[in-house]
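During the second year of the project, the team shifted from modelling isolated chains to modelling whole assemblies. The rationale, set out in the original proposal, was that interfaces cannot be judged from single-chain predictions alone. As a representative example for this report, we include one of the complexes processed in the last quarter. Its constituent sequences, exactly as entered into the pipeline, are reproduced here:
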Amino acid sequence: MNEKHGSSPRASRKTTTEQPHERRAFLNLFAILFVVWVLLTESFNWQELTTGFIVSLGLSIFLRKSYIKLDIPPFTIKRLWYFIVYLVVLLVEIIKANFDVAYRIIHPKLPIKPGIVVIKTELKQDFAKMMLANSITLTPGTFTLDIIGDRLLIHWIYVRTEDTERATEMIGNKFEKYLKVIFS
Amino acid sequence: MLPLIGKIVTSSGVVFLLLGSLGVFRMPDVYNRLQAGTKCTTLGAFLTIVGVGIMEPAWFWKTLVIAVFILITNPISSHAIGRASKKSGVELCDRSVVDKSRDFEEYESNL
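Output from the structure prediction step:
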């Protein structure tokens, strides 16, 4: 009973501080949905725009709580810059990954040395971890099987090291340094 | 000029898709097959779709949105398949050199 009394004023204060946060989430989500709508319909006809406006409005009203749960950091120039660099690095890695795997497939001896290793991450937010796991899946020869806490279970098509620290350096670090700045 | 570039891009995408499907046959176990399936199909599908967009410039932005969507969702689906096979106890092939999943499970139960 006591506990309940203690927690209720804190809860009410939390909702008042969350109000502008929620409005920001709503506006961000609305902007993203509306831009995607315009890109997909590719027309500035008022009927199309009105439909897109109503659909985006409805969706962002219903989904703003889930958007807050993603915990996407506020927009800054520095974050945008790091995000662009991250995308370029990711694109290069995707192309390298494709040639790497294609080579292993064509080679008559099938040069693979598969294994499952564990790596560590310093990222805290779930969304950041998801981006890291996705990037790892898209890069040469590695792919994420599971995440728990700060560990990632990685299947590696050609195991170069079994040590957790060294594997973290080889697999995770090239993305983690950008994601750390983006989600700091 | 644009249709030619589009055709080249689409054809290279098709080559990657072909290699990916070949990899699914050649690789020895689920996880390695998923590697072939994810890597090659991601770039393959990306290039095929964007190539169509280059051939028809009016569709370019639309195809780019679709391609980015594939780029985001493809790793998630293969991760889900890989995780499900690990959880249901699919064995690694004989050529595997290391399996740290036992350590990982220990870490999970200690958490």
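The first strand of chain B starts at residue 98 and ends at 99. Strands of chain B lie at 98-99.
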